[in-house]
Amino acid sequence: MNSEKTPENPAPPIGWGLIGASTIAAEHMLGAIRAQAGHEVVAVMSSSAQRGREYARKNAIASVPESLDALLANPQVQAVYISTTNELHKAQVLAAAAAGKHVLCEKPLALTVADAREMLAACQAAGVVMATNHHLRNAATHRKMRELIAQGAIGRPLFARVFHAVYLPAHLQGWRLERPQAGGGVILDITVHDADTLRFLLGAEPVEVVALSHSTALAKQGLEDGVMAVVRFDNGVLAQIHDAFSVRHAQTGIEIHGESGSLVGRNVMTQHPVGEVVLRDARGETLLPIAHENLYVRGVAAFCAAMRGDGPPAASAEDGVRSLATAVAVLHACKTGQRTPVIL
Ligand code: NDP
To answer: Biggest alpha carbon distance in the chain?
Structure first.
């Protein structure tokens, strides 16, 4: 039998199964997967058959399996994208690994570091790729900042400041504000992204944190909707983090201040390919050229390459474990008022 790819006999598409009929999948990830040549979304699984059917119809997805096992039994499905609420990720990743599917999982990977480690180990043992959907690493702005820091453009980095206080859009004001058991709260939602972005920019690891959080009218059930934290990194950098669901008119940003220069990223803690980066040093202020591209398309492309054995994903499972470890330390510091080590 001739199994070679020819124009008359193209390779079958690589099928993806969506685990979770979520907003992020509809708004960003479906398009990002469909932008990859030879990849196709073949199934979506929801805990509600009716919602699943409606979601599949709206998003032109062919199949709505009635269970996770049924989705994983589909031989067309070679990769899964998991974007359910956070408490469900662990069992779904373990099941996908057992079925031999590659896994792109949303952040936070889990609610505890031990669970996230177990997920990573299961994927390693099964020989499948596991990645974390930390999209900000794929932003051209952050990549430019990382490149310049590595080149020594600001000298030794000393401080970082993250401005990631936003207003949670009305259509997302559900479990994030009301369900601690689902991993709600701004720290598991946004601080994980900050931790990953700072690790990416600095090439350094968080070691300890101090933090305070509060809850305004938005979050309920003891969940926090605003936090300020300071993270010490193993290269000595002190990073100040401000995350919120309750701030309507702030602009996001990230700044890295070094001995001989400062990098200022404005409007860069976002899902969209926007924002600018300015380098300030003895020569003055330089607006850096940025070739923006879709963050999610780039992240999925790296994942698809990793499935082919061609390089690592943009953010690995280990990166997801590490960002979660920082968020867990921030949660602990807020609860206890204590300076808290980041424990891997
Ligand atoms: P959603 O609330 O949209 O979806 C989460 C789950 O809630 C879905 O799996 C679905 O369950 C259920 N659900 C969704 N809409 C409804 C509805 N109208 N009625 C009842 N149930 C509903 O969450 P997000 O898409 O915002 O987040 C999902 C995951 O993705 C989280 O882990 C989050 O942290 C992550 N995320 C990551 C982002 C990134 O940029 N990396 C950005 C946003 C979120 P079911 O599948 O059973 O139908």
So the answer is: 68
Please, which pLDDT band fits residue 128 given cuts at 50, 70 and 90? very high
- The reply to whether ligand 1 has any atom less than 6 angstroms from the CB of 86 is yes
Cα separations (Å) of 91 from 52, 77, 87, 255, 287?
A: 20, 18, 9, 37, 46
- What per-residue confidence (pLDDT) applies to 222? 94
For residue 167, the CA-to-ligand 1 centroid distance in Å is 17
- Which pTM value belongs to this model? 0.96
DSSP label at residue 12 = P
Q: Say yes or no: CB of residue 124 within 6 Å of ligand 1.
A: no
Q: Quick check: 2 and 10 in contact, CB under 8 A?
A: no
Residue 92 near ligand 1, beta carbon < 6 Å:
no
Is the shortest distance between the CB of 51 and ligand 1 below 6 Å?
yes
Q: Are 116 and 324 in contact (CB under 8 A)?
A: yes
